Amino acid sequence: MYRKDTDCVYNPPRHQGVNTPIHTSTANRYLGHTEILYPRSYNTENQNAIVEKLCRLEHGEAGLVFSSGAAATSTVLLSFLQAGDHVLFSQEVYGGTTKLAIEELSKYNISFDFVSSADMAHIESRIKPNTRIIYSETPSNPLLSIVDLEAISAIAKRHSLLTVVDSTFATPMNQNPLLLGFDVVLHSGTKYLGGHHDLCFGAVVTSQHLKDIIYRSAVNLGGSLNGLDCYLIERSLKTLALRVERQNASALQLAQALQDHLAVAKVYYPGLPGHPHHRVAARQMPGGFGGMLSFVLKDAAQTEDFLNRLQLIVPALSLGGVDSTICQPSKSSHASLPESERLELGITDGLLRLSVGIENAEDLLQDLEAALR
Ligand SMILES: *Cc1c(COP(=O)(O)O)cnc(C)c1O
């Protein structure tokens, strides 16, 4: 067993090359072979190489990689649910996951509720006889709320429910939900695992038994990943520890500086002692608090001007890459919500979500300060 930063880099010596050779063949000889390689069988060498790496990083037995984070989410949900079942989602899951529930699960007579994960008693009171899954996401988007994974897993065990968590914002470097009692951890690899704004993929890590169940649906649903992307992911994972370490440190530094800035009304970052779930975050994110932070401008009318004045930080959607990106959730990820619902969630017009990259933190701070001035 190596430490995580070594596991990001090291490939077991299966080949003469240090890297896994790219395997692109979809037709493979079957005479004399017990296993037939095929991308949608999730068994090619390139898929296996990154799954093994992610399993070591997440302390799981088995996993699968998918063509997007959304494919990972939908495949996991559809492999465990059937008509008549019920799911509890934490209120602040990714917008695409909310849409998946409302627009797809409902077609199959699968019901669901969105619950505030901060209130454990509340969660337990919403469990129904037909509830099968508690689905969480932590830290959440865009307000960086923290779900207490140990507490949720204790409730789920009492009621024999499956627990699934979207750990995209944390990465395996900062948080390992399987060690906190969760059954399945999933990632939008499009964000930190890929890390360069040029790949779209998803990943699931779990036990061998649960992977076998997910696998049967995954083959039918067909969201598998191709060899060329696997190769780029293997390359990306080699620098994951370095990138996340820098992003953790810079995000904390920027959060502290923004907190003291006169033009900023509020900063959301789980690493700040004033964050409402700071103590839970410190316990369940031993690696760091992540590279995402949000802040609110005192003068919301200035938000678009502020974005236009930035020289280094790029106003762009998506997150988790080496370049720092920023967006205004009320005009992007949450634009389709009715205003009253948006405000209820705390997504005001002055709210900005910053994904801290690996640039020099002083340069990032100067860019923010100049635009705030
Ligand atoms: C982006 C994202 C997803 C969806 O992933 P895709 O790769 O875009 O399909 C799911 N969860 C979170 C938290 C995300 O940020």
TrEMBL record:
The modification N6-(pyridoxal phosphate)lysine is found at residue 191. It comes from the Bacteria. Keywords: Aminotransferase, Pyridoxal phosphate, Transferase. Its cofactor is pyridoxal 5'-phosphate. Coiled coil: none annotated. InterPro entries: Cys/Met-Metab_PyrdxlP-dep_enz, Cys_met_metab_PP, PyrdxlP-dep_Trfase, PyrdxlP-dep_Trfase_major, PyrdxlP-dep_Trfase_small. GO terms for biological process: methionine biosynthetic process; transsulfuration. SUPFAM superfamilies: PLP-dependent transferases. GO terms for molecular function: carbon-sulfur lyase activity; pyridoxal phosphate binding; transaminase activity. Gene3D superfamilies: Aspartate Aminotransferase, domain 1 (3.90.1150.10), Type I PLP-dependent aspartate aminotransferase-like (Major domain) (3.40.640.10). PROSITE patterns: CYS_MET_METAB_PP. One of its GO terms (cellular component) is cytoplasm. Pfam families: Cys_Met_Meta_PP (PF01053). PANTHER family: TRANS-SULFURATION ENZYME FAMILY MEMBER. Belongs to the trans-sulfuration enzymes family. This is PLP-dependent aspartate aminotransferase family protein. It comes from Rufibacter glacialis.
